[in-house]
Design brief:
By secondary structure, the protein is of the alpha/beta class. The protein has eleven helices and 21 strands. Helix 6 crosses helix 7.
Length: 433
């Protein structure tokens, strides 16, 4: 399955997107209580929005808008809603996304394109190591996409290495899809239980939720650690509930490919203006073809860059870089600016670290951030773990956060709070101004 528009010249893609944008603005004008109010309050005549550049006339939509006015974004009668999804909002309460039957079909199309980009086709079998319950969009979207593409699916869910390996040995999938750091736990379990994972049926791993590459598209520490242990094909993806669209890597692994029929992307700087190509900024998205709750100029909070040179796979649509981090998670520590993924990359590449969490707090005196890392250590060590970790951090990110050693069980309790659908490794306790 391929998207013809991705292989068209850039100017054709731009004209196509502008036509889709005009259709979307008309739809919002007619059906969205939230955007009807936004257009009226800001005296926006949608007929004047003709190009992608004209989008800058429209104010941004932010996560707090979704939280405060959630159902005002709904563009259809409730009887047309087929599936309800939630994601956490800025103010702490869940944000609901209502999907129609057409939205689920769009999700299936999006994921079918994305899996095809990673080389999947009918005859492949993928073991899905992510949940489909708890009002989670991702697992459902993956299943719908794989079904549309004609790929066999094994819905195992997340965690439980013993069950994952039992399933792999019984059904012989060629692909797994999961959070990349979980692969290290699969490898560790296999090594401890005499499972020859090198000769298993798995030939391809598709990662979600964590990066595998750096800004130069080289494997990061986590990706390299997996590759050194298990020489399989590694693919990363970028997506979110709000965008209802995936940016998948192809076999050349040089960024996540844009699906022009599904989403418009802007990268903006601190001044809220577009940045230059290759420059890191905040990802802002406008969904195309969403019926239930479309979004216009939504600030994702994710920091990345785009690359517009054609890919060797033949696609001419742009590619988005690995995510640098979350804008509101930026850390200013000892004269260095960094993001949590850089810290996680060091920890994920340290063999004796079983689990961890990062805590940020405010230093009121210096008006800078304080960073502490609480670590669960796998085994008794005959060296100074704190010193070794600090040395590793200085070598990779130039600064050494405070290190706290705790039990694996205590750290696990922090990683998996009662209502969480994902492992939590980051706690931001800084005072917000």
């Amino acid at each position: 399955m391929i998207s013809e528009i991705e292989f068209q010249p850039k100017e054709v893609i731009k004209k196509y997107q502008e036509e889709r944008l005009r259709q979307m603005l008309s739809y919002l004008h007619d059906h969205s209580p939230y955007y009807q109010r936004l257009f009226a309050e800001n005296h926006i005549n949608i007929s004047s929005i003709k190009t992608l550049e004209d989008l800058q006339q429209i104010p941004f939509t932010e996560k707090k808008d979704l939280q405060l006015h959630n159902m005002d974004f709904l563009c259809v009668p409730r009887e047309k809603v087929i599936d309800y999804i939630t994601t956490s909002g800025t103010l702490g309460d869940p944000v609901t996304f209502a999907c129609t039957d057409a939205d689920l079909e769009r999700l299936a199309y999006n994921e079918a394109l994305s899996f095809a980009c990673a080389g999947l086709k009918p005859g492949n079998v993928l073991q899905l190591m992510t949940t489909m319950d708890k009002r989670f969009m991702a697992g459902l979207a993956y299943f719908l996409g794989l079904r549309k593409l004609g790929v066999g699916v094994i819905r195992v869910g997340n965690g439980i290495p013993e069950l994952q390996w039992d399933t792999i040995q019984r059904i012989q999938p060629d692909t797994v899809m999961c959070i990349p750091s979980f692969i290290l736990k699969l490898i560790e379990y296999a090594e401890n239980h005499n499972i020859d994972y090198i000769k298993s049926s798995i030939k391809r791993i598709i990662g979600i939720g964590e990066g595998l590459r750096d800004q130069n598209f080289n494997l990061n520490a986590l990706g390299q650690q997996i590759k050194d242990k298990w020489d399989v094909e590694l693919y990363a993806t970028y997506s979110s509930t709000e965008m209802s669209t995936t940016f998948p890597e192809c076999q050349y692994a040089c960024g996540g490919h844009h699906h022009p029929e599904l989403i418009i992307v802007e990268i903006i700087g601190e001044d809220d203006k577009p940045v230059s190509e290759g420059e890191v900024g905040e990802v802002v998205i406008t969904t195309l073809g969403v019926e239930g709750m479309p979004l216009l100029r939504f600030r994702t909070g994710d920091m990345a860059s785009i690359h517009t040179e054609p890919c060797r796979c033949g696609r001419h649509s742009f590619r988005i870089s690995p995510i640098v981090g979350r804008k509101n998670h930026m850390i200013k520590y000892k004269g260095t600016t960094l993001y949590p993924p850089a810290i996680s990359d060091v920890l994920n590449n340290t063999h004796y670290v079983e689990n961890y969490y990062i805590t940020l707090s405010s230093n009121e005196t210096t008006e800078t951030d304080e960073v502490s890392i609480t670590v669960g250590v796998k085994e008794d060590t005959d060296f100074d773990v704190t010193k070794d970790l600090k040395d590793r951090f200085r070598a990779k990110i130039r600064v050494a956060p405070d290190i706290i050693i705790d039990t694996i069980e205590n750290v696990r309790k922090k990683n998996f709070p009662a209502m969480s659908r994902k492992p939590v490794t980051f706690f931001d306790l800084r005072k917000k101004h």
